[in-house]
Amino acid sequence: MRRSDCRTGRFASSVAAALALAGCSSVAGLRHDAKAPATTPSADVVQAAQLNSYANALSQLVQGSPAEQAELIAGARAAYDPARAGPGALRYGLMLAAPNHPAHDAPQAQRLLREALSRPELLSVTERALAIVELQRVESELRATAEVDRLTAELQRERERQRNTVTSATVAKRLQTEMDENARLRKALDEARAKLDAIANIERSISDRPPAKEGRTQ
């Protein structure tokens, strides 16, 4: 299975887990409201609608075309207001955490989800549950990415060390070859000097001999 498919599966699982936290109470509320006259929606109905909105947006983001993905991200970014974190930070964080789109940014998603959870009073119970589940998934992704980066850097250092070791061995071999050659040349030079000295000694001994007399006197 490809890594992108695994991320999509984990992402879908986290969303499903958060939806499950809405529980039967949301369904019961919907059934009860269906029998009752039109009144102000209950908290369960509002939360169910919120989760349905998040799920639809994330599904469109993961499965949409590049243009649709860019439009959804731009909309979430425009709706995000750092001064009033809450749902805006949650939606934007979920968008950036979703896999398989160019704007995927796990570190930024982690920051936004933490920001959303820092103002729990602005989130519903199910929104907080969704933020917690997705934050845990994003942090697991970041830990895995950091471990891959660490192992990659370690492998690169090992390759560099081996390359330097080979280079050092090559330099040492070359230096030894040059030293051997220098020793050979020095020996040849000493032998040549010895021969020259011998020739010079012979010439000196000949020149030091007294000249021979041409004949005896009567």
Features:
218 residues, rod-shaped, mainly alpha, 0% strand, single chain, 81% helix
Report on this model:
It is a single chain. About 7% of the residues have low confidence. The protein has 218 residues and is mainly alpha-helical. The longest helix is centred in the last third of the chain and has 84 residues. The chain starts with a helix and ends in a 10-residue tail after the last helix. It has a domain of 149 residues. It contains six helices and no strands.
In short:
By secondary structure, this protein is mainly α. It is 81% helix and 0% strand. The protein contains 6 helices and no strands.
Question: What layout of secondary structure does this protein have?
Answer:
Layout: H1 3-35, H2 43-63, H3 66-79, H4 86-97, H5 106-117, H6 125-208
Helix pairs in contact: 1-2, 1-6, 2-3, 3-4, 4-5, 4-6, 5-6
> What kind of assembly state do the chains in view correspond to?
single chain
DSSP strand (E) fraction? under 5%
Name the average pLDDT. Answer: 77
Low-confidence stretches: 19-34
Order of helices and strands: HHHHHH
Number of alpha- plus pi-helical segments = 6
Q: How much is the radius of gyration in Å? A: 43 Å
Beginning-to-end CA distance, first to last residue? 128 Å
The computed structural class is mainly alpha
Number of strands: 0
Fraction of residues in helix? over 70%
Query: What's the overall geometry?
Result: rod-shaped
Biggest pleated sheet: none
